[in-house]
Structure formats: structure tokens, C-alpha cells
Fold this protein.
Amino acid sequence: MLFHFDLKEFKEKVSTQFRPWQRSFQFWVRAADIYTGYKVFQVRASLEKDVQKQEVMWEKQHEIAADKIYSMCSELGGFFLKVAQIVGKPDLAPAAWVKRLVILCDQAPATPYNVIKVVLEKELGQSIDELFEYFDKDPLGSASIAQVHRARLKGDKNDVVVKVQHPGVQELMMTDIRNLQAFALYIQKTDVKFDLFSVTKEMEKQISYEFNFVREAEAMARIRHFLCQNNKKSPVRVPRLIRDMVSRRVLVMEYIDGIPILKLGDEMVKRGIHPDGKLAAAAKQNILKKLSLAYGQMILKSGFFHADPHPGNILICKGSEVALLDYGQVKDLPDELRLGYAKLVLAIADNDPLKASESYRELGIETLSKCENELKELLRLAETMFDTKLPPGVTMLQPFAEESSIKKVAVKAFPEELFSVLRTVHLLRGLSVGLGINFSCAEQWRPIAEEVLYVTGRLPAKDLKQVHKRGASRRRFWR
């Protein structure tokens, strides 16, 4: 019997088996370089007594780190593109980081058309020519898990969007998450007294769902139905599903024409609208109002919500209409957490430290105080984590700075399931800062929180403040 040895096939198998190890090695080398760079710089900066010179030094250090983080996220791709979306927010990260990372929102490397064609035809059981009148080979965009193509179905007049999963992406992303979990454990033991490991565990759970497009299709249909049922007109547009064209790795939905929210300023200039003028301000305020209202209703009334409002998932359509895309990351909050969070929203809106402390216990957030005025710092921490409003004169929160509430109040335990709410609020804050509007989602959501607590018997009628005058309160708030 002749033994046939295919060297090319052997190399591919070896490469596939060693790829996670190689990826892990690349992550740890780069992460260690960025982390030690900052630790060494902290010592240097502490020796400089001139505050202005110190600020200049920090800006340069942030620029150096931003280049390294950008290189790591763009070259490794996969899960690190999501890390870039989370970290690169104008209210949280240094400006140099935001400038570099914001462009990674929808610029993941595309999978070649011939590979996408094989996946699509295998999943749907027919050839592209049989299914589509035309199919654009160049993707509209490519993200960490999938890419989307514009097409038109046979016998139809309207365009559709075809979402196709990148082959082999799941294994690599799970490797990335486990590396990040190990790094989070190290960081929380050495620098940041916050339960980062629970945060990464929830990320692992949520992202594992994203690989099943059947689940995403059901989530999209459920949220679309909920928002239409709860409003005369839904605050945001949710794409309509093409029902018989969904599989685990392919999802077909209606095409919505719009401008990515990151390009809104450029579009206004094209149309002769001054980006800082009254007309632009009104449009931006309207956009944020619609998004925030939709999220208040989803989180507090339903508990089932779209958990990924980063700029790449938001389109602005005609008449300042907002479209919310990509339902791969959704969260179904248990009622106890949903109602506990509604109580925390009231505590933040009412500026009530005692209620905030009680809400922490109800939610299962365990803290350890390191300061005299514990209740005040607990409220500050709640505002940092769960509200979009920035303090007067502040344009960027620095939660890990020495004077921050996280340094004064250690978070020993944080419910994994609550991370999706925290991340969603932080992404909404990033959008509001990017649009130049400082607003409080807790204040806007107050009537919704009152309503759900009253309906479930958790808030006595005598304590109602706004539930019967929501229209008036909203008008006052957005002036």
C-alpha cells in the first residue's frame, strides 16, 4: 500500500492547531508591553511637579499606548475589535485612544467573496444565482463575527441585507476571551478594585450567543414587536426579518438606507447645516432622545434589550429617524434585577444616597468602603456606572483615577447579568458625548422606572411623582 503524504494539508493542520497558542502568545506580549509601559510612566510622571508639563507627558504616553492598542486590535481582529468598541469611548478613554480606536467599529477585515459564497450556499441550500436577482460581492461592512452584503431577492423590488458569518471565527474569539479573563484577574488583584472577572464572564456568555443567527433573528423580531406595541410609533427602526432565509450562520433582513452616526457631522456639512448650529443641535437631541427612550423601555419594561449600541450599529435615516442594527448581543434580565435596577434609577434621579445603597444590596453588588463619606461615594459610583450624565465641567470620566469613587469604594462582587446594562449605559454616554449633549438617562427613565415599580406593587401610590405626567416631564427635561 502506497503512503500518500500531502505536505500542504499537513502544514494547514499544524497551523490550525497552533493558531490559538500563537494568538495567546501575541496577546500576552502586547498586553504586557502596554501595561508595563504605563506602570513605568506613572513613576516618571510622579517626579514631575509642574501640573501642565505632567499633562503633556500623559498625552504623549496615551498616544504611544493608543498606537499599540490599535495595532493589537486591528491585527488580531476577532474579539479585540469588540474590545476596541468598548474601550474607545469619548467619555471614558483618553482622547488619543478614542481617535485611534473609533475607526475600528466597522472596519474588520472582510472574508473573500468566494469563501462567503460557499458558506451562504451551504446554509441556504441554493446557489446565489437561484436566490438573488443581484448580490454585491463587496460587503457594506465587516465586523468581528460577520460581514453584510447588499442584495435583491428574485422577484422582489426591495433590497435586502445578507449577514454571513466569518468561517472559523468562534474558536478564535473564545481563545481571546479566556486570555482577557486571565488578564482581568491580574488587573483586579493589582490595580483596580473592581470585579472585572465577572464582567469578562458575562462577555463570554453574551458573545457565545452571537454565533447563532437563528437566535439573533428571534431577538430582532421580539424587540421590533415590543417597541411597536408600546408606542404609537417605535422610537427606533428595527430591520424586518426575511423569515424563510435564516440559518445558524446566515441572516437576511430588509435594507435600511441611512448614514452611520459617526458620519452625521460630515453629512450635515454637505447639506449646508452648521454642525454646531441650532438646527444641528435639535437634530442631535432628537436622535439621542429616541435612542434613550427605546433603551429605557427595553431595559425597564421588558428586561429584554439590544445590548450593543456602539456607533457602528446606529444609522440615521431621513427626518432624524434612528435605525438600530445588529441583534447578536441581546440580554434578558431576570425580573428581580430589572426591578432592582428600576429602584437604582430612581435613587440616581432623586440624588438619594440611602436609596442607592439599598439598591446595591438588592442587586447583589457588594462593596467595601475606604472612605469617610461612604453613602455619598456609593451614589457617585452608581452615577459613574449607571448614568450617562457627566459632572459640570467634565468632558471625560476617569473612573480609575486616584480621586474616583472606584478607588474609594471597592466593588467586591458584581452580578454578571448586570454588566450588559452597565455596558449599554456607557455606550449611550459615549454617544451623547460624541454628539456634544450632556444628559441623564436616569432622569429620562425616571417615569418608566416609577411605572414598572408601581405596576408590580414595589412603589406605593403615595410615592409616585411622575408616572401620570410623563409627557410634561419629558418636555421639561429636553429643553
The radius of gyration is 24 Å. The chain has 18 helices and 13 strands.
